[in-house]
Amino acid sequence: MMGFESPGDRKVPVSVRDWDAMRRAIWRSACAWETVANMAMDIVESCAHTEGCPGITSETEPCLVDKYEEPPTAIQVRPSPVRAFIGWLRRFGRRGTSVPTHVLVTRGCPDREMRMSALVILTAARQSAPVNAPKPTDEPYFAPSREYFSEVLSSLAAAQIEIERLREELKRKSAPPTEQAPPLALEERETGS
What we know:
46% of the residues lie in helices and 4% in strands. The chain is mostly helical.
């Protein structure tokens, strides 16, 4: 069971036309992921940072966040009228806007969220790109046969009909129960002899 071959390994005959199409599709995928990674890297590099942010030099370091502290309590000698009004509203079941309880000490990087989103895109592009997808040689391209093209189109049409049937069934099952209408009577046609 630990050999190099497993019972599921078998060779499947593939036409040269289909093999070339698969190679071209993988190469196009590699080019597309490279474009996505380049654009995400441009966004990461254009993000603004505050002084001393470790994210300037490293992709793996997070940007600085805003830092808040509680205001000193010695400043407030008596409750402010705003706090008294909010307490009065709460007693009667209404909510007022809260008084800020923290003061901004240092501001973090302004583009922190945008940089994190771009890094997520960049990582996904690097993980999803094919490892080895060289450009296929410029060999002549042969279009699929008419029979193969017709077969693909007919299977697509059948899949679309099946999707519509499933959607209607889902709508019917998820619709709220309504008054049942009597079944429609079928008209009987008399055949003349």
